[in-house]
UniProtKB/TrEMBL annotation:
SUPFAM superfamilies: Isocitrate/Isopropylmalate dehydrogenase-like. It catalyses: (2R,3S)-3-isopropylmalate + NAD(+) = 4-methyl-2-oxopentanoate + CO2 + NADH. It comes from Alteribacter lacisalsi. This is 3-isopropylmalate dehydrogenase. NCBIfam families: leuB.
Length: 363
C-alpha cells in the first residue's frame, strides 16, 4: 500500500487538496489501487501551530512516505515575520531536506480554454512544453545572503552559486525526459553576463554528445521570455536555473489562461517526489469554496505517473479534466460570459464523474 503525505498549507490549500485526495481515492477504487494518507503542517499554518514553517515531524513524515501532495503556502498574515518564520521558508526547506533538485512544470493548453489565454489562440493552440527548473541552488540558496552596513548605508548581498555537479544533474534530467517527448532541449542562461551561466552552457555542451538523439539549443533568458509569448510551440523541454525558472514558468502560465491551471512536480534522484499546483494560496477567496482545483488535480496525476508509475491512471485523470472542460464546466477564474461557474467542490465532483471506465486511456 502506497503512502501519501498531504501538506494542505495555507489559504485555499486545504480546499484544493481535499478535492485532490477525493480524486485520488476515487481513482484508486475505480482502478484497483490502494493508498493511505497522512496529514502534516507546513507554511503559515505550521508557524501558527508550531512556531516554525517546517516542523521536524513534517520532514520525517515526508521522508517516510512514497509521495507528497502540497496545497499552497503563504499569505499577508505572515508578511512581517522574520525570514526564518516566513511560510515560503517551509517550502524551500522541504525541497532542500528531500533533495528535490528538479521542478517539472508542463505547459499545455486545453482546446476548450483557448479563448481564456490573453495570447491569441492561433499562437498558443499548439503549445506543449515542459519547463525544468533547478530547485536547490542559485540566488535563493547561495551564501553570503545578508544585509550589512557599508560606505553608502545599508547594503544587501545575495550570492549566485552553482557547482558543476548541480548543473550536470539537472541537465541530465532534461535530456532524459526529452526522450519521452520530442527530443529537443532548450537550455536557458545568461552566458553573455554571468559566470555561472557560462559554466552552465559549457556543461550542457559537454553532456550533449551522450544524448545523440536529442537536439540541444542555447537561449539567453531575455530572449526566452520573449519567445515564450511570440511562439511557445517552438519549445519542447526548457531547462534553466532556479530564479530564471521561477520567472519563466510563471510567465508561461499565461499561455494556458490561468495560473490556476498549472501543476508541478519536484523530484530528486531518490526518495519521494513533491507535487503541488503552481498558483499561490489566494487568501482573498480562502474558505469560500471558489478556488480552482484543476491544477491540484493535474498535480495528483503527475504524482501517480512519476512516483507510482501509474501512467494509465494519470492519463485517466487528465482525460476527466479535459472532458469536464469540454462540457463547459468552469470555476470563476476561467469562466467566460454565459458559462456555468462551479464551486471547488462541484468541480471536484464533476471531474470524478468523468473518470473513464479504464485507466489505459490515451489523451
Amino acid at each position: 500500500m502506497k503512502k501519501i503525505t498531504v501538506l494542505p498549507g495555507d489559504g485555499i490549500g486545504p480546499e484544493i487538496t481535499r478535492e485532490a485526495v477525493l480524486l485520488i481515492e476515487e481513482t484508486a477504487e475505480k482502478y484497483g489501487n490502494e493508498f493511505t494518507f497522512q496529514y502534516e503542517d507546513i507554511g503559515g499554518a505550521a508557524v501558527d501551530k508550531h512556531g516554525t514553517p517546517l516542523p521536524q515531524h513534517t520532514v520525517d513524515a515526508c521522508r517516510e512516505s512514497d509521495a507528497i501532495l502540497l496545497g499552497a503556502v503563504g499569505g499577508p498574515k505572515w508578511d512581517k515575520e522574520e525570514a526564518s518564520r516566513r511560510p515560503e521558508a517551509g517550502l524551500l526547506g522541504i525541497r532542500k531536506a528531500l533533495k528535490l533538485f528538479a521542478n517539472l512544470r508542463p505547459i499545455n493548453v486545453y482546446p476548450s480554454l483557448l479563448d481564456s489565454s490573453p495570447v491569441r489562440p492561433e499562437i498558443v493552440k499548439n503549445a506543449d512544453l515542459l519547463i525544468i527548473r533547478e530547485l536547490t541552488g542559485g540566488l535563493y540558496f547561495g551564501t553570503p545572503r545578508e544585509r550589512r552596513t557599508g560606505k553608502y548605508g545599508t547594503e544587501a548581498v545575495d550570492t549566485l552559486y552553482y557547482n558543476e555537479a548541480e548543473i550536470e544533474r539537472i541537465l541530465r534530467k532534461a535530456f532524459e525526459l526529452s526522450r519521452f517527448r520530442s527530443k529537443k532541449v532548450t537550455s536557458v542562461d545568461k552566458a553573455n553576463v554571468l559566470e555561472s551561466s557560462r559554466l552552465w552552457r559549457e556543461t550542457a555542451d559537454r553532456l550533449a554528445p551522450e544524448y545523440p538523439d536529442v537536439s540541444l539549443e542555447h537561449m539567453l533568458v531575455d530572449n526566452a521570455a520573449m519567445q515564450l509569448i511570440r511562439d511557445p510551440a517552438q519549445f519542447d523541454v526548457m531547462v534553466t536555473e532556479n530564479m530564471f525558472g521561477d520567472i519563466l514558468s510563471d510567465e508561461a502560465s499565461m499561455i494556458t489562461g490561468s495560473l490556476g491551471m498549472l501543476p508541478s512536480a519536484s523530484i530528486g534522484s531518490e526518495g519521494p517526489g513533491l507535487y503541488e499546483p503552481v498558483h499561490g494560496s489566494a487568501p482573498d477567496i480562502a474558505g469560500e469554496n471558489k478556488a480552482n482545483p484543476l491544477a491540484a488535480f493535474s498535480s495528483a496525476a503527475m504524482l501517480l505517473k512519476y512516483s507510482f508509475n501509474m501512467a494509465g491512471e494519470a492519463a485517466a485523470i487528465e482525460k476527466a479534466i479535459k472532458t469536464t472542460l469540454d462540457q463547459g464546466y468552469r470555476t470563476q477564474d476561467i469562466a467566460g460570459k454565459g458559462e456555468k461557474v462551479l464551486s471547488t467542490k462541484e468541480m471536484g465532483k464533476a471531474v470524478r464523474s468523468f473518470l473513464p471506465e479504464h485507466a489505459t486511456v490515451k489523451l
